[in-house]
Amino acid sequence: MKTRYLLILFTLIVLFGAWLYLSYQIGISETDKLEKLANLPIYAYVADTTQVAAILSELKPVPGIKNVVYETPMQAASELIQAYALPITEEMISDYALPAIITINLEPNRESISSKPIIMDILRSHLPEADIDSQSSAYRIIIEELKHLDLYNIVFNVVIGILILIIYIFSRTTLELHKLFHYKGNKHSAIENIRLQRQSVKHTWLMLLVPLPICLIGYFAWIYFKPLPQLIPYWVFLVQAAAAILGTLINHFILHSFERQMVMEENPIEVIYQKNNGTEDNNDTPLT
Fold first, then answer.
1. 89, 129, 135, 284: which has the highest count of C-beta atoms within 10 A?
2. What would the DSSP string read from start to end of 79-121?
3. pLDDT one-digit tens code per residue, 64-73
4. CA-CA distance, 46 to 99, in Å (whole number)?
């Protein structure tokens, strides 16, 4: 019996550990996509440089912006000449009316996604649409990938949570039923019955207090000493705890019900009817 119970504990530890590992891999994939979004800056080409101060002032309080880089027309032209090794000198372009460039780099997080429409509204209030390059096509593709990843993450956690809940219930119930049937028919003292009941309660609570806490302690120790970023959403930990607690409560009520039924079968209640022997006491004496 002890070996089977330890095997159940080990199985749950492996399952919770795998759950955390796969959730972390999903977090890595999400971080990678957010980094790709952050590598798609927004460019604003400002022909009227008097608009620059107003644009920079309105962008300053917007959350999710990593930095805003302003380049004068000559600075932007010089960078292009150097980047592409163009056979052009600054003197050759000095007579041309070139726009200034505002480059808006976003943070690699969810907040920047919700802030981008605000940034676009600010730029559109000062510039024509043709002077704004938001790299919308590439941005839209990555956003769709993130939405699919979010859906996959929810489905994954729900499915594995249900799977662990089923294992929690059936493995524990099967083990205890096997033990109850094993001892059925054997006479035990009251002390022995109490000991078996306490052992059953102990096993039930150990399934709650051992597998998941061990995995969580191992996970947080791993990311702390590695060190690594914490990439698993905290709601995943709540789902894990809910599966463990719900499984423990269901096991407690099921096993308690079986124990009561076994006690009733071993100690049936006898109802004794007193026979009247066909005689009746007919007393017609009126009450006085």
1. 135
2. HHHHHHT-S--HHHHTTS-PPEEEEEEEPSSHHHHHHHHHHHH
3. 999 999 988 7
4. 5
